[in-house]
Amino acid sequence: MKTIGRYNALAMDERDEHQVPEDIEIETESVPEEDISIEDAEAMSNDKLKDLRTKLKQCEAEKSDHLEELQRAKADFLNARKRLDEERVADRTRNKIAHVEELLPLCDSFTMAMGDTAAWEEAPEKWRKGVEGIHAQLHNLLQQYGVKEVAPTGEQFDPQHHEAMGSEAVEDSKLVDTVVKVIQPGYTMIVDGTERQIRPARVIVGVSA
Questions:
Q1: d(C-alpha 73, C-alpha 81), whole Å
Q2: What would the pLDDT profile of 41-81 be if each residue is shown by its tens digit?
Q3: b/e map of 117-144 (b: 16 or more CB within 10 Å)?
Q4: 151: Cβ–Cβ under 8 A, 6 or more apart, which residues?
Q5: Contact by Cβ (8 Å): 24, 7
Q6: Is the pTM of this model over 0.70?
C-alpha cells in the first residue's frame, strides 16, 4: 500500500531573501503486519529446537561411531606392532641358537683332539698352544652367548636331558641308572633369562651286573 503526502516547503534564496514556496511530493510505503499469534511463534520455535536437538543427537552418534572406529584402529595397530616386536625377538633368538648349534661340532672336534691325552702330549708344544688358544677363543665366544657344557657323569639318568647311547654293567648298585660315561657332552644356553637345552648329552647308563 502506498500513500502520497504533500506539504509546502519554503525555499529561501540567501541572496535576495525571497520566499519561494514549492510543493514536494513524498512517497511512503507502509509494511503490512503479519498476523502471527504467540502460540504459532512458540510452535515454530519448538519445532526448530526439536530439529536442532535431533541433529545434535545424530552428530553425537556419528562422533561416538568415529571414536569407536579410531579406538579399534589404534588397538589393532598396537597389537600388530607388539606381534611384530615379538617376532623380531623370536627371530633373533632362533638365529642365535642356530649360530651356536653350528659351532657345536667344532667344540666336539676340540674335545676329541684334546681328550686323547697321550697323543696330545706327543704333539709339538707350539702347535698345542696354538690349538689351545683357538679353543679358548671359542670357549669365550660361547660364554658370551650364555652357553654351558653339560657333562653329567655320575648323575641320575634323565631321558629329558640325556640321550642313552648304550649301557654298562656296574657292580655298585648306586651306579645303576646313572651316567657312567659321557660320549658327547650336552649344551645349555641362556635364552631370555631362562636356561634352555640346545643339545642333550650322549651317555652310557649303568645297569646291574
A1: 12
A2: 777 777 788 888 888 888 888 888 888 888 999 999 999 99
A3: eeeeeeeeeeeeeeeeeebeeeeeebee
A4: 182, 185, 186, 201
A5: yes
A6: no
